[in-house]
Please model this.
Amino acid sequence: MANVTQIADIAACLQYIGKTVALGDADYELARALHPLVESAVRRFVGTGIVQTTYTHFLPPADAYYYHSDAGPGSHILRLPEWPLRSITSIHEDTAAKFGQASGAFGSSSELTAGTDFFIPYNQSGIQPMGHVVREGIWPREPGSVKIVYSAGWSKAELEGTITDPTLDASSIRLAVLKAFAENFGEAKRRKGGAVGVKSESLDGWSITYDTESSGGTINLPDEVKMLLQPFRRFCAV
Model:
């Protein structure tokens, strides 16, 4: 698990739609309710946490369908749940670990060595855009037999577009959040209501439905927003 920070904070979202409101203002309360739902919709559409942070995962997951045929258990490629992959702190492999719940699981002797047991196939920008780790051999099939601590996602500077390497420019994601917020804020205002709780979610994170007593609505991702996000999704044949 990880503490994932915001892609674009409420202040930035309000500035984007030309509003400066104070705490307690009705528009601010609406923005505060909408903002996490919009960011959640964007994250679900892309399929990742987006903001760079450190993760600890036990792989393969219990649901082996998570993997496709050439990246997963029984393959030399391990596909991590988060991407782009920036670095790996440690990988332990223990086929009897049972997600770390077995006695003595993931002891010091189970740690793999970078460059000998595995490597990250970095691209020219120094990231692994698909979240792949290559094993010298094959990764085990037993669920929860690999414990990996790694850094993945886009940095604040990359999301803001202030980096010098254009291949690491992820500002389209932040722009997508701002545009999605503007669209849904305007729609919520037209409905004279706000978004409070999630009622249902559609497939692939395309939308989230929220519910209130006075009105209801949907966190929509307009086509323009989806187009901005499309290059950052990960597509794999299963």
